[in-house]
């Protein structure tokens, strides 16, 4: 029996992913839960396991290709009939959203089983019943029926469609309408071009918008002249030789996609939706550096990395427990105060900036927090963070000091109301007991959402963090 494995939603409502690397080739034998492919979503690189046992028949997506959730990516030939290894796994071979015939009630969705390595979240919405084609054109397959080579459209995908009304992307033009313009059609003004009706599904429109392709300049090869994903990709591939980077080239063009694209969108949304305020504080951290040195000699920390970031994290956790409003979120209708701390750590990776978080960091011992920080940082740099680690954060730390920078104005991680930046720790002249001395000094910068955190509260949080780093014993007294 030939079974198709369709790209699942790996748990965060994502609509597409890029095939990074295949671990199998046609003809290979595979077992259930064997890793077969690495995909990059807008959040992380995820390894997908195989839901079937058998022989790989075909790889249905190339490395580097972006695939919609629900599109088939691999077919596996299993034993005849349904054996114990296949029972209960048919849901992953079906569409994520079932087809609905004209005038019929939607069938009950099948629950997708969870495989080792990632979770599955089934959308609660259902595909809208297909409308019958208008009687005027010759009887043929409705435009909404996707060709065999195109990926099915998931319900979640429609939420990212362009502003144009969705029916216009599926309804065939009236008999008298002008067919879509070809690249050679003469342009006689903006008014004329505005009347051209482009047939393309929302995922195709989004792809074209992301790649900068003008749909009106394409000739569709899909049903009734509709433009397919292949048409858009062909338009992008055509001029590739002219834009390739040659030796001594003055410009290079890098596609914005995956983690970098998602980060850019999130930062723009945060910067222009939350009123940011940033406060600064220079702190003498000589005692903190001495505490770090002593912790490294203790047997509890023998197998973990101890850095100043550990004590900064502990200080911030303690400060927000003293001032809970700094560990909250703004919904527009209410303020949600979190009585737990999911501590985000901003990490620069080859794929862009990501902010994984340590769940319930406030409940951890200091050795446990040190271990969690080390493991999280290692996974982030390797691109192996799970989707669950990239959501649900309550407050974030960004360490710009590792780049030799004194300070910065950090942008809030979406959904949070405060973020702390740490600058480099360096020797500076400092007055101690009326005498000038050389001390270890850093600069802290706290950005906060002024809708939730006012200047007084922000100052208290920053002051408390600074006080604990000047004298680490305060962490014990205030915890």
From TrEMBL:
Residues 94-194 are annotated as: Disordered. Residues 170-183 have a biased composition (Pro residues). SUPFAM superfamilies: CoA-dependent acyltransferases, Peripheral subunit-binding domain of 2-oxo acid dehydrogenase complex, Single hybrid motif. Residues 141-169, 184-194 have a biased composition (Low complexity). It comes from Microbispora amethystogenes. This is Dihydrolipoamide acetyltransferase component of pyruvate dehydrogenase complex. Keywords: Acyltransferase, Lipoyl, Pyruvate, Transferase. The keyword Glycoprotein does not apply. The keyword Calcium does not apply. InterPro entries: 2-oxoA_DH_lipoyl-BS (IPR003016), 2-oxoacid_DH_actylTfrase (IPR001078), 2-oxoacid_DH_E2_comp (IPR050743), Biotin_lipoyl (IPR000089), CAT-like_dom_sf (IPR023213), E3-bd_dom_sf (IPR036625), PSBD (IPR004167), Single_hybrid_motif (IPR011053). Its cofactor is (R)-lipoate. Transmembrane segments: none annotated. It holds the Pfam family 2-oxoacid_dh. Residues 2-77 form the Lipoyl-binding domain. Its EC number is 2.3.1.-. Belongs to the 2-oxoacid dehydrogenase family. It comes from the Bacteria. It is an enzyme of class 2 (transferase). Residues 199-236 form the Peripheral subunit-binding (PSBD) domain. Residues 94-112 have a biased composition (Basic and acidic residues).
């Amino acid at each position: 029996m030939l079974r198709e494995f369709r790209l699942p939603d790996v748990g965060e409502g994502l609509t597409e992913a890029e095939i990074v690397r295949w671990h199998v080739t046609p003809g290979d034998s595979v077992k259930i839960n064997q890793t077969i492919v690495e995909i990059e979503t807008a959040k992380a690189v995820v390894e997908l396991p195989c839901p079937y046992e058998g022989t790989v028949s075909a790889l249905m997506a190339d490395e580097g290709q972006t695939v919609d959730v629900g599109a088939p990516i691999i077919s596996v030939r299993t034993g005849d009939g349904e054996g114990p290894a296949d029972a209960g796994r048919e849901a992953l071979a079906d569409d994520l959203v079932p087809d609905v015939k004209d005038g019929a009630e939607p069938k009950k969705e099948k629950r997708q089983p969870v495989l080792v390595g990632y979770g599955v979240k089934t959308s609660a919405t259902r595909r809208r019943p297909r409308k019958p084609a208008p009687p005027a054109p010759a009887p043929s397959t409705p435009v909404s029926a996707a060709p065999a080579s195109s990926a099915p459209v998931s319900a979640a995908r429609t939420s990212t469609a362009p502003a144009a009304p969705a029916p216009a992307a599926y309804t065939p033009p009236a008999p008298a309408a002008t067919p879509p313009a070809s690249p050679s059609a003469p342009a006689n003004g903006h008014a004329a071009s505005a009347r051209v009706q482009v047939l393309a599904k929302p995922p195709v429109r989004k792809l074209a918008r992301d790649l900068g392709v003008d749909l009106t300049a394409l000739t569709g090869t899909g049903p009734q002249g509709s433009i397919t994903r292949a048409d858009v990709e062909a338009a992008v591939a055509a001029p590739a030789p002219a834009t390739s980077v040659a030796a001594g080239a003055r410009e290079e063009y890098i596609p914005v996609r995956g983690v970098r694209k998602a980060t850019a969108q999130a930062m723009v949304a945060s910067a222009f939706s939350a009123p940011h305020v940033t406060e600064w504080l220079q702190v003498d951290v000589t005692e903190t550096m001495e505490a770090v040195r002593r912790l490294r000699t203790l047997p509890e920390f023998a197998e973990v990395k101890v850095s100043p970031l550990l004590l900064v994290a502990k200080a911030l956790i303690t400060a927000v427990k003293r001032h809970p409003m700094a560990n909250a979120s703004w919904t527009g209708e209410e303020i949600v105060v979190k009585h737990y701390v999911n501590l985000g750590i901003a990490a620069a990776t080859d794929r862009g900036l990501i902010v994984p978080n340590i769940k319930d960091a406030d409940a951890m011992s200091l050795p446990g927090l040190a271990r969690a920080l080390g493991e999280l940082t290692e996974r982030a740099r390797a691109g192996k963070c799970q989707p669950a680690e990239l959501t649900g954060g309550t407050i974030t730390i960004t360490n710009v000091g590792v780049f030799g920078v004194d300070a910065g104005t950090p942008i809030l991680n979406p959904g949070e109301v405060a973020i702390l930046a740490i600058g480099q720790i360096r020797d500076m002249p400092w007055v101690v007991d009326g005498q000038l001395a050389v001390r270890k000094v850093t600069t802290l910068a706290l950005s906060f959402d002024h809708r939730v955190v006012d200047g007084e509260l922000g100052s208290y949080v920053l002051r408390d963090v600074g006080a604990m780093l000047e004298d680490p014993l305060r962490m014990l007294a205030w915890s």
